[in-house]
Amino acid sequence: MNARKLPPKKNLSSMKMLGRQLGTARRAAGLTQSALGEMVRLDEETIASIEQGRRSLKSDLAHLLDEILQTKGLLSTGVANLPDIDQFPLWAEEYMEQERVAIALSFYDNAVIPGLLQTAAFARCVLLNRIPAYVEGELETVLRLRLDRQEILQRRCPPTLSFMLWEPVLHLRIGTEETYREQLRHLRNCSSLPNLSLQILPLDSPMHAGLDGPFTLLETPDHQHVAYTESQRGSQWVSSPDEVSILARRYAMLRTQAMTTQDSLRLLDRLLGER
């Protein structure tokens, strides 16, 4: 793709900085990544991933490495003071930075209700289904950060938000019946926000432009148009004007194939038994 320049990152990821410190200490001790891996019962690729900031350094491993490399608590202290956002891969970190300041966001999802519209109970149930499971303490951090993202809905100058959901998403009974109904009510309430529109793509629609999976369109404060796509094992920015244009056209087609906002609200009311 022909990269289109995004707003600059504010600083080097703390995970990357910590990884560089580990690499420096390892080399000073005269150890290869393979040799250090054997000492802590990890493979060479795992050590390399930590040093490159692609994998987080866990507290117990940091303490062990401090002893082996004689770094006097440098690594364990670094782990203890990692900013919450650095619990995420760099692509997710960059996305969250841009989401906070975006002036327009358009979401399409055919798998689950987007995080910005999830209740705390529903989000917890979604996160509990992750494979591999989050280790102790991680789930609460990820849950808090997911809910913190929702502050943009109440921002003084909120972005223009458009959500497009495939109807089966509304029928997924994740969690208890009350969790499910609370989520539907929350979705219904969010739909009344003046800056937010919600449309449902009906199950019996003969045309469907979103079969390739979920994506997000984002407009930055300086009016750059970029996109973000998700997959099972990773996500990516799309910044090529040609590629962004394709996704924008898909979203436009989805809007013509979906129910109107009024019909979408009536569907939510029927699911809630209110009409």
UniProtKB/TrEMBL annotation:
Which positions carry the signal peptide feature in this UniProt record? none
Please provide, alphabetically and separated by semicolons, the GO molecular function terms listed in this UniProt record: DNA binding
Instruction: Cite the HTH cro/C1-type domain residue spans from the record.
Output: 25-75
Protein source organism: Streptomyces galbus
- Full protein name: Transcriptional regulator
The record ties this protein, via PROSITE patterns, to:
HTH_CROC1
Q: Which InterPro entries match?
A: Cro/C1-type_HTH (IPR001387), DUF5753 (IPR043917), Lambda_DNA-bd_dom_sf (IPR010982)
Pfam short name (any one): DUF5753
